[in-house]
């Protein structure tokens, strides 16, 4: 379950419902500013005997204002404290786009432009490795990295742990085929966010971009399998070997997402969904020197 941009008032309740329904993977981040609520919900479900801590898999993320290596462990400690955890299961670098260090999540100059920082991501990675060695995280990975940036880490002299995953925007309009093949060749798991298209936040998303869940092919397949277009889009990712994150905060949607295991798409239908790819990126980053998406993949 993805808890990005879930309103704080609903977040705690949604996480409790998700755990009751059977979800065990919760995808969070410092940036979402709801780790206290997520932590409270998990602690409550542990206290009432629904789950044990070791049955929960929590993903946390190092935000871009903490990419400087000397900031990594203190950023992690902040998340651990908010969550009331001794460790995080998976901790990933949220983006390769480093921003000026400090408490402001989006530091801007007098003209309202983001203030970038020039950080050696290999040094950031070494600080992540140290967090794993200290037992504060079980696994480490990255998010929003392209092939070149992944290779920079993989080819780093003295690499101790390679990234276990790369979490990226991925859906039928942006199927990430080349990046998926590359990650599979390196035993890196591709994790899909915005798997149903987009939250359509006006700050990042072109409002004229097409709505994925209104796509005629997805809707025809939904009718064929007697499922929703959303479930068809999620099932597509599972069959490609992609870990897929679903975001919802109503009990019905949380329960419905479990039906993704109730059916299987034919090879022909998988190819039909493949054909929808148009390299449409809903989430766009800004003019940063480490901008990852100018490369082919």
TrEMBL record:
Residues carrying the site annotation Lowers pKa of active site Tyr: 61
Q: Which PROSITE patterns match?
A: ALDOKETO_REDUCTASE_1, ALDOKETO_REDUCTASE_2
Which residues constitute the catalytic centre?
A: 32
Among InterPro entries, the record links this protein to: AKR (IPR020471), AKR1C (IPR044482), Aldo/ket_reductase_CS (IPR018170), NAD(P)_OxRdtase_dom_sf (IPR036812), NADP_OxRdtase_dom (IPR023210)
Q: Where is the NADP-dependent oxidoreductase domain?
A: 5-277
- Please list the GO terms describing molecular function: oxidoreductase activity
Source domain of life is: Eukaryota
Binding site residues for substrate: 94
- To which protein family does this belong? Belongs to the aldo/keto reductase family.
The protein's name is: NADP-dependent oxidoreductase domain-containing protein
Species of origin? Gopherus evgoodei (Goodes thornscrub tortoise)
């Amino acid at each position: 379950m993805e808890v990005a941009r879930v309103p704080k008032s609903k977040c705690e309740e949604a996480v409790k419902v998700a755990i009751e329904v059977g979800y065990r993977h919760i995808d969070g981040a410092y940036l979402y500013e709801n780790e206290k609520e997520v932590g409270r919900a998990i602690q409550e479900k542990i206290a009432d005997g629904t789950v044990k801590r070791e049955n929960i898999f929590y993903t946390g993320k190092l935000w871009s204002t903490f990419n400087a290596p000397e900031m990594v462990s203190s950023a992690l400690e902040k998340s651990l404290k908010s969550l009331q955890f001794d460790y995080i299961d998976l901790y990933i670098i949220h983006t390769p786009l480093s921003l000026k260090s400090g408490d402001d999540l989006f530091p801007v100059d007098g003209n309202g432009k983001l203030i970038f920082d020039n950080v050696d991501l290999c040094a950031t990675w070494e600080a992540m490795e140290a967090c794993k060695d200290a037992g504060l995280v079980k696994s480490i990975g990255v998010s929003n990295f392209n092939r070149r940036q992944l290779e920079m880490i993989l080819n780093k002299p003295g690499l101790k742990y390679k990234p276990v995953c790369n979490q990226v925007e991925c859906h039928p309009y942006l199927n990430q085929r080349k990046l998926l093949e590359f990650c599979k060749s390196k035993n890196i798991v591709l994790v899909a966010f915005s798997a149903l298209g987009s939250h359509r936040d006006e700050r990042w998303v072109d409002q004229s971009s097409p709505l994925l869940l209104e796509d005629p092919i997805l809707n025809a397949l939904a009718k064929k399998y007697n499922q929703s277009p959303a479930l068809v889009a999620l099932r597509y990712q599972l069959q490609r070997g992609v870990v897929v994150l679903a975001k919802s905060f109503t009990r019905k949607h949380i329960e419905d997402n479990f039906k993704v295991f109730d059916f299987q798409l034919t090879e022909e239908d998988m190819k039909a969904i493949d054909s929808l790819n148009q390299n449409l990126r809903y989430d766009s980053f800004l003019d940063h020197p480490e901008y990852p998406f100018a490369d082919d993949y």
